[in-house]
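Allow me, if you will, to draw on your knowledge of protein folds for a short while. I have a record of one protein: its chain in single-letter code and its fold written as discrete structure tokens. Kindly check, if you would, that the fold set down in the tokens agrees with what the sequence suggests. Thank you for your consideration; the sequence and its tokens are set out here:
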Amino acid sequence: MKKPVLPALLLLSLAAAVRADEVPLPCQQQFAPTLAPATYWEDTTQLEGLPDWRKDKKIAALVARIAPRDVSQDDALAQIEAFRKGKPGKKAAPLLFTGLVAETNEQRSDVIGKIHDMAERQFNLSHTIEKVTNELASTPEDQSAKREEIQQRRGFLVRDYDSLDRTLRYACQIPVDLEARLGAFARALQE
């Protein structure tokens, strides 16, 4: 009795359907494309009808000082506290927050884009490793010099893959940290 060909063809077609540009993020968490201000701000009516935060020089300067992720969260929160003690107008805190959301979204987008690039590179590396492994398996045992060269090439590829894997694990945490940081900013501004 002949084995059915359909399951094998189905698997091949599914494997072919996954192209490098469709590589899913290797992160445990799913990332929304952007963070919604309403997720972090209690009274969302305060966020409605605000002018462009970039037009307020003081707000734009403060956003520029505290939004970058290389600024420690403690330093940023201290600057937010100093801002609040200056008794800004009623709309200043929501305006500052919209600026922080915009900058955080931009940073997240950059990081997620880099994660996509690394995931694609890892995907391509896995296929290259598979080809080199098949080449090694098909090389006769009596061709030791050629086998050694292939093994060395495969070793470099595997190390590159593993290094990328470690980097991806770190990189996947960055959007989570940015979200938590934005939440801390929102709480400090609403106190």
